């Protein structure tokens, strides 16, 4: 690639789970850390969120386990169509994506991935940053999350 992602920006492993309360307790016990808070995002209209090119409308339970310089994110999707619901239905629980912070190179990397045939599964914007889930399961065995910054 002309714009390689680079290992220095590796920031997250995201895992889709069926029961976030159980998974959060198990991960915390495994690492000997406090059980993380669980954030519940209810489905809402969000003009900055897409799923497979259409406006996204879904909810998600999220817990973050700090693991040194990166995080383990646990995602429990609701019943609405989303990249997380799609993954759970097709694969069951497992690693949904690896996240990379790429700074100002985000658009160049996304453009190059698109030119190589990788689809943009989900794009989301929040104050100060964004995230893009790249549909790379077939080629890489896992999706990618490309972020300009946390």
Explain what this protein looks like in three dimensions.
The protein has helices at 20-31, 83-91, 106-115, 137-140, and strands spanning 10-16, 38-41, 49-51, 54-55, 60-67, 70-77, 94-101, 119-126, 129-135, 143-147. A ten-stranded mixed β-sheet has the order 2-5-6-1-7-10-9-8-3-4. The protein is α+β, with helices and mostly antiparallel strands. The protein has one domain (7-147): Roll (2,3-Dihydroxybiphenyl 1,2-Dioxygenase, domain 1), CATH 3.10.180.
Which structural class do the helices and strands define? alpha+beta
State the order of secondary-structure elements, H for helix, E for strand. Answer: EHEEEEEHEHEEHE
List the domain count as a whole number.
1
**Number of helical stretches of at least 4 residues:** 4
CATH hierarchy class name: Alpha Beta
CATH architecture: Roll
CATH topology label: 2,3-Dihydroxybiphenyl 1,2-Dioxygenase, domain 1
Beta-strand level of the residues, as a percent range?
35-45%
Biggest sheet details: 10 strands, mixed
* Average predicted confidence as pLDDT: 94
Proportion of residues in helical segments: 10-25%
Shape: globular
Query: Which stretches are poorly predicted, pLDDT < 50 over at least 5 residues?
Result: none
Q: In total, how many beta strands?
A: 10
How do the strands line up in the largest sheet?
2-5-6-1-7-10-9-8-3-4
How large, in whole angstroms, is the Cα Rg? 15 Å
CATH superfamily placement: 2,3-Dihydroxybiphenyl 1,2-Dioxygenase, domain 1
End-to-end gap: 24 Å
